[in-house]
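Before the break, one more example. Copy the sequence into your notebook; we will annotate it together after we see the structure.
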Amino acid sequence: HGFLQRTQRKSNIMIGYTRFYKSWINYVKDYSKKYIKFRKGNEKIISLFMPSVVKGITEESEVEEWSQTLALNLKKVLPQKSIIIVKPHPLQNKRFLKKILKTIETHSRSDLRIINSNLNTAILANISDLVVMHHTQAVIDTFAFKTSVIHYQKISKNWKKFWKKASHFSHFGVKLIQKEETLNKELRLLLR
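Here is what the structure looks like once it is written out:
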């Protein structure tokens, strides 16, 4: 691993992905029981793992478009009274987050519950029927809890300058979706 070589340590111990440890998974499942209480019946729960805004890489306009596109497509395919949980990036600007939440609410149906949550991504992956994400390492939590995941992101020129590969998750089997038609098709498939 290049990272381990850069640490300049004489020895390193590889312990694997702690998010896959049975003890962690069991802890999260037990802890999650507190948060499943807002599910009153068999509503679908979809979590959106929001991207961060980083000037020159992912601009506010891209995040706004991403949010609006998801809201419009979820509106078409979600069963009545479903729950959309918006998980902002930890570094997200609060003013901008309010704007994004307003965008999602404006383009959703009135019967959909939209919840802003800062819960750990492992808890959200555990309680969700589907996670839709931008580029995020939290994808590992979806694997740990066997949650369906969609990586939806339009790769910009700025993104390509910073990340040489369009997606680092394809080697995990997560297909990058860049077109709205494909997003809609995947949502319909995974939410039936």
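The mean pLDDT is 88. Residues 155 and 166 are 6 Å apart (CA to CA). Try to locate both features in your own notes.
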